[in-house]
Amino acid sequence: MLKVGVLGAGHLGKIHLRLLNQSEHYQLVGFYDPMHDNAKKVADEFGYQYFDNIEALIDAVDVVDIVTPTLNHFDCAKMAIEKGKHIFIEKPITTTVEEAEKLRDLVKKHGVRGQVGHVERFNPAFTGVKDKIENPMFIETHRLAEFNPRGTDVPVVLDLMIHDIDIILSVVKSKVKSVHASGVSVISETPDIANARLEFENGCVANLTSSRISLKNMRKSRFFQKDAYISVDFLEKKSEVVKMKDAPENPGDFDMILQNAEGVKKQIYFDNPKIEPNNAILDELESFANAINNNQTPEVSLSEGTEALRVAYQIIDCFK
After folding, report:
1. Which domain holds residue 105?
2. How distant is the alpha carbon of residue 263 from its chain centre?
3. Domain count, the chain
4. Does 182 reside within a domain?
5. Averaged over 261-273, what is the pLDDT?
6. Which H or E element spans position 316?
7. What pLDDT is recorded for position 274?
């Protein structure tokens, strides 16, 4: 079992502590949080070992799980990597692209593994269909959330849209050619609602919308490709795959047949996956353990986390 320590015991940090404590892949050594009163409360309530010195915790473990505010990600990760520790780091990877690139280079230099917490990669609605997404040419995403003061210190692009940016970059095997975007600040000092259009070198176009001032929550993505349409509902954990094939000469009474202007007939059929319930955060943490133990590239590498952040800032730059 890998010895693991958690940096940060806020809302998400407590979730990580609970899941790591129950995981068969890790031995939870303890946690560090600079807010002493909160740390003591967490230690007293759940019985986790509290370290009042960050270096002492890092020295005692094999893996450092960084669930601090984003502003602290770089310093915490740099310290852990230079001590030869593997790092799991929540999204976004760092505050700046330059910091992310430094961490990406540091893990290579010190021979350790790093994974970024883009949890939607492990959403069962996505994992159930990702193998069916082949060369999509148009993608549309909507990630809408009711207002919550937590997270409004950063633009909605870094708070919400970055999830969809990462998903899109993971399925479009091409470089981003151009970015167009607009954003509006309604309540916060930074944009609360944003729309972005990404154009890729292979011709794919992705249209992303994110809002944290919506009256309802929504997390949907739609992927359009030759002879197929794939819908993923990250919130409801549902997926739908609609495919088309050449129509049979003698279709059945219940076959769905379409005919285009040229007279070509296609049959519509559904190829919906079976969705297996899971805990996506636990799965991402345990996938990292497997990557370390098997000497494999993590599911969401620091390089991928860096590229998602780079595109996010290209979108934000359009707001200026």
Report:
1. 2-112
2. 43
3. 2
4. yes
5. 77
6. helix 302-317
7. 87
